[in-house]
Amino acid sequence: MSLRPFNFSAGPAALPEEVLRQVAGEMLDWQGSGMSVMEMSHRGAEFTSIATAAEADLRELLQVPANFRILFMQGGGLAENAIVPMNLSKGGKVDFVVSGSWSKKSAEEAKRYADAAVAASSSDSKFTTLPALSTWQLRRDAAYVHLCSNETIDGVEFHELPDLKALGCDAPLVIDCSSHQLSRSIDWSRVGLAFGGAQKNIGPAGLTLVFVREDLLGHAMSICPSAFDFKVVAEAKSMYNTPPTFGIYVAGLVFQWLKRFSYAGKTGVAAIEQRNIDKAQLLYAALDASAMFENRVAVDCRSRMNIPFYLSGKFNTETLTQAFLTGAKERQLLQLKGHKSVGGMRASIYNAMPLEGVQALVAYLKDFEAQYG
Ligand code: PMP
């Protein structure tokens, strides 16, 4: 078992210890090349082999269909909020489903490039629910529909992606899957484009993954920078400009780790998905059973990755919240502070978080309640 603390950061987040050790071991000399990966030409044989394997492993893990291109980009999720409308909207209509802070931000940014409208929102419930499908007002001629499939701050997750065709909409679905990509499988038949920063489930900050259906390439607005034109990036195999090489290398090791990963008789993404389900159930059960802590999200759309929680009722004071966080750190449970916009606590339990980490947190919740409750 690991001797490192359990790290509940929302991102940049914990990486598998095995991967960090491998990175440390290869830091000065990658596989006899005499170079660190950071020192290699991105066009040389060594790095080309790293990038090719990373892409192939990711494609295999997520069963990405042949008509989707995988792009390694930069700028994170926030840059994609501009890059996607510049590539897909042609300056026309785009519809947003707002289910939390990140999709709200995406809709606002898109207004700079397109006629962006909110098709549905769960702001009335303070983002503790998902907007019911029956309320979605999709425009027939929208270029795409955007949603955030896992809201990192609000802790709300689409457990199933909507079938837009069944809603009478032919537009492609764009998903911001930053904070749960690779935590479960993706139904590609329902998606036109998916994007996410790597710094949660995949690797270091600085790398952004984009999965884009081929027919969506080649429609960029003239103001779109070439380095952000999906077609240009795809044709250059993500090497139009110098890609974030170290990030791609670490991500590649995470993909290999996930391919080896087994749990409950399963392997790969199916195994990590099962472990993520088990971890989330354990933590939500403890919160629901507690008279001192609460999670406010409706049961059917609770995130498996990001679990915001609060001290409830009379216990919800700044002093007790601070005491909780200080005590957590003493027990080697790190970075449990909630996002500044919502306060409270948040446990992000991404792929690299072992079951033991959640068990340790649950034990702490019980001890804290016994002491202060
Ligand atoms: N979307 C989601 C769902 C996120 O969680 C984040 C970052 N926490 C972003 C977008 C913004 O990503 P970045 O900071 O990589 O630009």
Question: What would your notes on this structure say?
Answer:
There is one protein chain. The protein is an alpha/beta fold. The protein is 34% helix and 17% strand. Helix 1 packs across helix 6 (245-260), helix 3 (76-88) packs across helix 4 and helix 7 (268-289) runs parallel beside helix 9. It starts with 5 loop residues before the first strand and ends with a helix. The protein binds 4'-deoxy-4'-aminopyridoxal-5'-phosphate. Residues 11, 76-78, 102, 148, 152, 176, 178-179, 197 line the site of 4'-deoxy-4'-aminopyridoxal-5'-phosphate.
String of helices and strands? EHHEHEHEEEEEEEHHEEHEEHEEH
- In percent terms, what proportion of residues is strand? 15-25%
Helical stretch tally: 9
Structural class: alpha/beta
- Identify low-pLDDT runs: none
The CATH class of the largest domain: Alpha Beta
Q: What is the CA-atom radius of gyration, in angstroms?
A: 21 Å
CATH fold descriptor of the largest domain: Aspartate Aminotransferase, domain 2
Instruction: Name the CATH homologous superfamily of the largest domain.
Output: Type I PLP-dependent aspartate aminotransferase-like (Major domain)
Distance between the termini: 32 Å
Bound molecule types: 4'-deoxy-4'-aminopyridoxal-5'-phosphate
Main beta-sheet annotation: 7 strands, mixed
| Widest sheet, order of strands | 2-10-9-8-5-3-4
Number of self-contained structural domains: 2
What integer is the average pLDDT? 97
User: Based on CA inertia axes, which overall geometry fits?
Assistant: globular
Secondary structure: number of strands: 16
Assigned CATH architecture of the largest domain? 3-Layer(aba) Sandwich
Please estimate the helix content. Answer: 25-40%
